[in-house]
Amino acid sequence: MDSDRREMPETADQTSDNRSSALATDLAKTAEESKGRGPEGIDRKAKRFTVENVNLFYGDFHAVSDVNMRIEPNQVTALIGSSGCGKTTVLRSLNRMHELTPGARVQGEVKLDGEDIYGSSVDPVEVRRLVGMVFQAPNPFPTMSVAENVAAGLTLNRRGISKSEKADVVERSLRGAHLWDEVKDRLDKPGSGLSGGQQQRLCIARAIAVEPEVLLMDEPCSALDPVATLAVEDLIEDLKGRYTIVIVTHNMQQAARASDVTAFFNLEGPGRPGHLVEMDATDKMFTTPSKKETEDYVSGRFG
N- to C-terminal Cα distance for the chain? Predict the structure, then answer.
């Protein structure tokens, strides 16, 4: 395996070798098996991430060093730490968004159920379909209606889908995002006309419409008021029955409320790479962490 990967430009024109990779085959199987499955389908077996000796770079800058972690299926894992410690960079590496930054590169392995997502035969577009991303600020497509926003990924990934099929997926995804009752009479209205909390849940509905196995969330509540934040946290709790969820948050109370496992990242000093200090069950991390560094952070003594 190539231990020092350079930036890997990809084109929309993928070779047949990409499609025959083990991960791509698994993706196709997953999509086929999950068609028509409703939001109540808690029998879904989500995916496990194994991160092994991962170092992340932006050009010559070493952003994150020597990360080793396991992210278990059907749990919420929170990544916490002070600004600049690399937690968002780690999150973006889990669906190959890190490499979209010019000069960015990865060393080490990021395995999804045993398959290295950075393998030379793996299509990054397929990875990003399996591993969905919800961003910090709600970002519905401003020229699209509520329904069109939810179906945007379907249009790209499932060519030839019928109108009735698409309508079923839109309803199922909005119900899964706890948003259907609020928007069912305004599906043809612009998604940008919803409130901030509704827009974020719309973006979650858009992410789950393509039937991923993992959801990554980069500070999903940072732009929301407390009521909308609690609504999204309730949704996250419900969604973990069907997905593996990883969230980045600066809100210690949110990490304590919403996650099963917490990973604490920190910096040794300016210009030094971020690193994983420790990772454990959330209850333990917030009561009896193993490292004093963690205790100082979660208790508010620094950060």
Answer: 37
Q: Is the model's pLDDT at 13 over the cut of 60? A: no
- The single residue listed with the structure tokens 């968004």 is 97
Length of the chain equals 303
**For domain 30-140+213-298, which CATH number applies: 3.30.420.40, 3.30.70.120, 3.40.50.300, 1.20.1560.10?**
3.40.50.300
Q: Which tens digit of pLDDT belongs to each residue from 94-124?
A: 999 999 999 999 999 999 999 999 998 999 9
Pairing of strands 261-267, 76-81: parallel
* Cα separation values, 121 from 20, 214, 224, 276, 297, Å: 8, 21, 40, 29, 41
Nearest Cα neighbor of 228 from 271, 273, 152, 177 is 177
At 17, which helix (H) or strand (E)? helix 16-19
SS3 12: coil
- Give the burial class of 294: count Cβ atoms within 10 A of its Cβ; 0-12 exposed, 13-18 middle, 19 or more buried: buried
Number of H helices, E strands in the chain: 12, 11
Query: Model-level pTM?
Result: 0.82
Q: What is the SS3 assignment for 181?
A: helix
The position carrying tokens 């990054």 is: 124
Coil/strand/helix, residue 84: coil
Cα distance between residue 146 and residue 188, in whole Å: 6
